[in-house]
Design a protein that fits this description.
This is NPS3A protein. This protein has 223 residues and is α+β, with helices and mostly antiparallel strands. It is built from 8 helices and 8 strands, in the order H-E-H-H-E-E-H-H-E-E-H-E-E-H-H-E. An 8-stranded antiparallel beta barrel has the order 1-3-2-8-5-7-6-4.
């Protein structure tokens, strides 16, 4: 994945996850919706969500950068943006318990997608694969993803392969009309022989898997 054409053009995505104090989650989201335009004035926000199932009191946002020099320039500008620092950062820092970030590339066979309409939910699935990289497990993993796409019950938004953070990690972002629509689709997929065969081949290389249900915040471009 990491030697495909999308890495060569320099574009990468920073995935940032914040743990918010439970008593401060509502206030944090209100401040984000009010002031996040100050942040998006500096660089492109792909999406911004809070967790609803699989994890609680977390927010996840994805940023797009042209290259590492672009990110460095943006971070420098943010540090000197008095409105951003004063109206948002200084206020929300005491609300946070932990911050985590990763840098990832879109896999070469995936373009960043959009949902067919607003109002659905997103599923963020993290696969920790065995060491060895895509040369070892890439084709089997791709076949498993495509098998789920072909069932038609879900929409693929993006597949991200980490470059900084835990390596051999792949994040897959799906969109569904509702949690119930997703559940019904999953049950149907589990009875599809093509899906079962593709997943069985891929899990040979899997060390762990985690998924969370995400709800987009008001200021998220992906809703």
């Amino acid at each position: 994945f990491a030697t495909g054409p999308r890495q060569n053009n320099g574009i990468f995505y920073e995935i940032r996850t914040y743990d918010i104090k439970p008593a401060k989650m509502k206030e944090f989201l209100e401040l984000a919706n009010k002031h996040f335009h100050l942040r998006t004035a500096h660089s492109e926000l792909v999406g911004f969500w809070y967790t609803d199932l699989g994890a609680l009191n977390k927010v996840l946002h994805i940023w797009k950068y042209d290259n590492f020099a672009h990110r460095t320039a943006v971070r420098h500008a943010l540090a000197n943006d008095k409105d951003w620092q004063g109206k948002f950062i200084s206020v929300v820092l005491p609300m946070m318990e932990k911050q985590h970030n990763e840098v990832a590339y879109l896999v070469p066979w995936c373009q960043l997608g959009k949902p067919p309409k607003e109002g659905g939910v997103y599923e963020w699935v993290t696969f920790q694969m065995k060491p060895g990289g895509p040369a070892l497990w890439g084709e089997a993993f791709r076949a498993a993803i495509n098998a789920h796409i072909n069932t038609g019950y879900t929409r693929l938004i993006g597949v991200f392969h980490t470059e900084y953070g835990l390596l051999n990690r792949v994040h897959v972002l799906w969109w569904n009309e509702s949690p119930d629509h997703r559940a019904a689709g999953r049950h149907s997929a589990h009875e599809d022989a093509r899906v079962v065969a593709a997943v069985r081949d891929s899990v040979r290389f899997l060390e762990s898997q985690q998924n969370v249900l995400l709800v987009p915040v008001q200021c998220s471009p992906l809703k």
